[in-house]
Amino acid sequence: MSELIRCTGLSKSYGKKEALSGLDLTLESGKIIGLLGPNGSGKTTLIKLLCGLLTPTAGDITIDGMAVGAKTKEIVSYLPERTYIPDWMKVKDILSYFEDFYKDFRRQLAEDMFQRLNIDLNAKMKTLSKGTKEKVQLVLVMSRNAKLYLLDEPIAGVDPAARDYILDTIITNYNPDASVIISTHLIQDIERVIDDVVMIQYGHLKIHGGADALRTEKGMSIDELFREVFRC
Question: Which residues fall within 8 angstroms of residue 134, CB to CB, at 6 or more apart?
Answer without folding.
Answer: 83, 154, 155, 156, 157, 158
